[in-house]
Amino acid sequence: MMCAFDPARLLADKELRKKVRAVWYYPDKASYMEDEHIRQMHYTSRKPSTYSITVTWNKHQSRWETRKYKGGNLIRLSFGKDYRLAMWQTTHSGPQADETLDTE
């Protein structure tokens, strides 16, 4: 699961959960695929949403690539040699204004 905030702190503090705009993305294990070029999985919210994230390990370039979508439209592309850096670039601006929040 991915979140743009410290998940331990967010889940432990009931008042903070009411104040923080957060979206949690969970792996869709059925979407996992791997071939000689990439290893990839999609992540979606457990609440109905048009947003999703695809995480890819590009084997030839030895880098992580993340793509955030609204429906079929790519709204953010990030990449890096380190998974954390790629995910930070994807989530650092927080949820989109119309994105379904998931703090409970």
Please provide a written account of the structure.
This protein has 104 residues and is α+β, with helices and mostly antiparallel strands. It has one domain (7-91). 20% of the residues lie in helices and 38% in strands. It is built from three helices and five strands, in the order ααβββββα. It has helices spanning 7-12, 14-19, 83-91, and strands spanning 26-34, 38-44, 51-58, 63-70, 73-80. It has a five-stranded antiparallel sheet with strand order 1-2-3-4-5, covered by helices on one side. A hairpin with a 3-residue loop joins strand 1 (26-34) and strand 2 (38-44). The protein starts with 6 loop residues before the first helix and ends in a 13-residue tail after the last helix.
Note the run of SSEs as H and E: HHEEEEEH
- What's the alpha carbon Rg, rounded to whole Å? 14 Å
Give unreliable regions as ranges: none
What is the beta-strand fraction?
35-45%
What percent of residues adopt helix (DSSP H or I)? 10-25%
Question: The biggest beta sheet, please?
Answer: 5 strands, antiparallel
| Distance between the first and last residues' Cα | 14 Å
**Integer count of domains:** 1
Count the beta strands.
5
Structural class: alpha+beta
Count of discrete alpha- or pi-helical segments spanning 4 or more residues:
3
Average pLDDT, to the nearest integer?
82
Globally, the shape reads globular
The strands making up the biggest β-sheet line up spatially as 1-2-3-4-5
